[in-house]
Design goal:
binds adenosine-5'-triphosphate; single chain; Rossmann fold; 2 domains; alpha/beta; binds magnesium ion
Length: 288
Amino acid sequence: MTTTDLQDGSRMTPRPRVTVEPRVDPAHDPMDVHPDGKPHSMEVRNVFKSFGSFDVLKGLNLNFQDDAITTVLGPSGTGKSVLIKHLVGLLEPDDGEVLIFGQDLWKIPTAERYEIRQKMGVLFQDGALFGSMNLFDNTAFPLRKHTEKSEDEIREIVMQRLTEVGLDRSWSKYPNEVSGGMRKRAGFARALVMDPKIVFFDEPDSGLDPVRTSLLNDLILEMHAEHKGTYLLVTHDIRTARKVSDYVGVIWKGQVVHYSKAEEAFNSDIPFVRQFLAGESAGPLGMD
Ligand SMILES: Nc1ncnc2c1ncn2[C@@H]1O[C@H](COP(=O)(O)OP(=O)(O)OP(=O)(O)O)[C@@H](O)[C@H]1O
Ligand SMILES: [Mg+2]
């Protein structure tokens, strides 16, 4: 290792560079086959994605366990939101396959892709509500757009979902009249209104205080217990990950470097995974 003499007379010894080999617990190989031989609801196979000369996903593999909550963690800018956009069919991979219910999203006609998308619910970071609609109309929007249901049927479903997320008495409020936590819950109600088989949460806890984060996590667990479904949650909050996850995937440098049951991930001896899940500054991960 070389030591550099700095202009002010001091000397700097660079930190050693540590490389981490991607490692996936063989007991939970994301490329494994579903125990009953059926396809997983969601599979990502060797997906590559670049924006210009910037490579984001570099051969990412992940088989999501059905009816489980999988949390994906990883440093900022590592491609977590890009992964969700691939799974929702908003981004097309440069190479590799994104399979939903066994179908490659980009080998089927566009109309079929849209049909599959209707079986998915997405809770975006800020709830992504329409500012010009009250919480009722926001929640009713997918039903009015994609189904032939009558207004009576829609009212029943929407009020049930709003009740589940504790917003039944706030149905007439507009997004700018409610708190961030309420907007998230309304976004959650809307994400679930079509009875999706797959639900995505992109940083559901961002912008929430610890108590509201904890309450939202309880709600995620309750709704999952009630409605089942394959949930993918992206978060930076280790407490959220500990609380809600059945499985944990860790993405680094465009690949899944760890994927296992949650308790195994939190007991991992892989330096990067340990550092990341413990939120420590010492380890292979630096600011770069
Ligand atoms: N449409 C796009 N065009 C160009 N670059 C993009 C696009 N979408 C994402 N990127 C880049 O891809 C990288 C991964 O972005 P992504 O949003 O997936 O990160 P992330 O892991 O979700 O980060 P964070 O934890 O901060 O939300 C970033 O460097 C981002 O700038
Ligand atoms: Mg993101």
